[in-house]
Specification:
mainly beta, Jelly Rolls, F5/8 type C domain-containing protein
Length: about 170
């Protein structure tokens, strides 16, 4: 997925992923702009709760080395509102580098045009590994201005974290 550099350490060798090439790869085709805050440069990133320094926009900043985290709990939601309707046909969830216990285990991706009623577009459950990306095609699509990832369980940690949520047309 990215380029790797060999770094010598004593008698062994360590493979280190290049963050620059990973960052560039995540941005191609993603409908969500590179967010620098919950409201910049466009749209709005929000969540049911946020851990300090791991705000909602960190899941939309096109950078795999940062992540969003709930302030507590194994469930919650992570949302992006475009401000205008978009059709999302697929998405990619990248787990954070936090321990596997913090990774989402079950979730739905939902869409809304009014923020009050939500339509389930995808339901997932399983074992998801730290620092890994998972790509999903949507069998049901529509035109919505807001999309949210509703996490109903993680793998047992006090909080849940997401590295990146990318939405594709």
């Amino acid at each position: 997925m990215g380029s790797f550099k060999k770094v010598g350490i004593g008698l062994g060798t360590l493979l280190v992923a290049s963050a620059i090439s990973l960052t560039g790869a995540s941005a191609a085709g993603n409908l969500v702009p590179l967010m620098t805050s919950n409201t910049s440069p466009a749209g709005t990133a929000s969540a049911s709760s946020e851990w300090a320094f791991h705000e909602a926009y960190k899941a939309f900043d096109h950078d795999y080395s940062t992540y969003y985290s709930t302030s507590s709990g194994s469930s919650g939601y992570l949302q992006y509102s475009f401000g205008t309707s978009k059709i999302v046909r697929s998405y990619r969830l990248t787990t954070s580098s936090q321990p596997q216990a913090n990774a989402p285990k079950t979730w739905t991706l939902q869409g809304s045009s009014n923020g009050g009623s939500w339509v389930v577009l995808s339901s997932q459950s399983g074992l998801y590994y730290p620092g890994s990306s998972y790509y999903f095609n949507l069998s049901s699509t529509g035109s919505y201005d807001s999309y949210r990832l509703v996490i109903t369980a993680n793998n047992g940690a006090y909080s849940t974290s997401v590295g990146e949520l990318e939405l594709y047309e």
